Amino acid sequence: MLTRADYPFNADFYRGLAARRSSFTRVFEHTVPRGEGYGLRVEAGCTLRLVMKERPNMLDLCVYNADDPSEFYCSGAQLAIEGGRITRFTRIWGTPPHSRPLCTVIADTLCPRPTPRPTRDHASHAAHCSPHAWQLYTRTHPRTCYDNLRQGLAMLGLSQRDIHDNVNLFYKLGVDPETGHYVFDPSDAEDGDYIELYAELPLLFAVSICPYGDGTVEPAEWADSDIPVYPLGVEVYDTGVAPLGWP
Amino acid sequence: MGTDRDRITLHPPGSAHAREFDKPFYEGLRGRLAEARIRAAPTLREPGAHAHDVQAGEAMIIRLPEGAQIVNLFVFNSADPDERLWVQDMALTEGVFLTRYSRLWGEMARYRPLMTMIEDSVTPIRLGPSPGGRHHFIFGGSGTPADWRYAGGPPDVLTTWEQFAAALAERGLPASLLKDNVCLFQKVGIDGPTQRFEILPSDAVTGDFVTLFAEIDVTVLLALSPYVDGSRPAHRLTGVSVRPVEVSITDRLAEPLGWPYPGYPYPDLSLYLDENGVRSAEPVPTPGLD
Fold first, then answer.
1. CA-based nearest residue to A203, from A61, A87, A58, A21
2. What does the buried/exposed string (b/e) look like for B50-66 if buried means 16 or more CB atoms within 10 Å of the residue's CB?
3. Per residue in B14-40, pLDDT tens?
4. How many helices (H) and strands (E) does chain A have?
5. CB-CB under 8 Å, A139 with B279
6. Which of A136, A140, A197, B152 is deepest in the core (most CB within 10 A)?
7. B73, B144, B168: best mutation site toward chain A, by most A Cβ within 10 Å?
8. Number of Cβ pairs closer than 8 Å across A and B?
9. How far is B284 from B276, CA to CA, in rounded Å?
10. What is the ipTM of this complex?
């Protein structure tokens, strides 16, 4: 096995930050209607908290440097550095030349349920659904994640051409080591569960509430199912703590 | 050669997002390879800006003449570089390893195969599926200057990202076009519980090759990984040279089938493309959705 690069991580800083969450000041709160997309700016040193409302729903999240959106989330680097899972203290890495953490997960309230398959909520590499997938399985065109991300980016003055790789939150999946194919399970999330990301620099986020719901319905059954989707709570907190900077 | 719907199957087997595939067409292409004339046959001996234009219907053969060498590949529509490899979505359809009949899919809005792998001497012929790992991993993108530095790699080595960026710059294109690349001849094992993807020494040997059929006119960027065959960490690669890679491009094997196949459900592209037929850069939501 090839030894990977060893990136420094100040665990004490993030443990301290996570321990102070009750002292954070909420500076923004919004509920994204079910099945839609949303875009917002989050300043360095603030956190973005994504909260499940009513029931779990998969989210696709794109991340950009607010001052230079040509720096964005890089899933290839993410897989190499952090692996396919995202949970507390996972860093979300950006593209070269900076190749730096864009944000760091400081809270993840999910309690994973055991499964015989290599699946777990929050993944770094499963793309976003598009009208092509929905046409294939249902011959319909709902608001797909591509369209929702486009909607969110439009709120930020960006276009569909800025849609890049994304992370998949509240999406329980894994890659089968034998076949190399993805396997899926319904999300373990419950009402009120959240994941919280600490912005290492000023960031733009575009988020989509996936029309695939909580992952209970297999793609082959999409056409015959009324897949329920749920709203999303978006909250921004000022931590009062400046990022460490990179490198 | 048109598509006969009776010949179409869903591919690849076992994929949750399998898509229509005319396997007999591609089997026919393989039969034509032996007689194909070679249009160009450069040998890549050093890391650098290696870009190759491959016309629709031609095939690119990437061969290892002196042993295993990881070859990173990024591809885009020559006429519209915004239509480029979309590894994240491709992984859902094809899985995370390429082999014969894997397709390299492009971005929205057209979302169509850019190239199809019609030969792979490593996986199906000699090794088959292996619990220890497989070859041609599709999630490249970590071959950055930062990663090389943090891995303790020697200075003055061109990383994959720098090679790709240089090739794009030669064509007046920005490095921000780059997304994940595929890693030919790289062997990767997956740890199920942690979902860590570990690079293993490549099992490719002298003479191994892959052949990619161009479904549209494409530009293919190739980068020779400074990790060579993946057997040594970066800090042990001082003075180690990459191994050469032969690149051959055939003449036209056949008219590609085109995408979508007749009768295949396809979205209304006018919601995404502008009057020039490229993805609209207007910062607006998709029109007409509820």
1. A61
2. bbbebebbbbbbbbbee
3. 888 889 999 999 999 999 999 999 987
4. 4, 13
5. no
6. A197
7. B144
8. 210
9. 17
10. 0.94
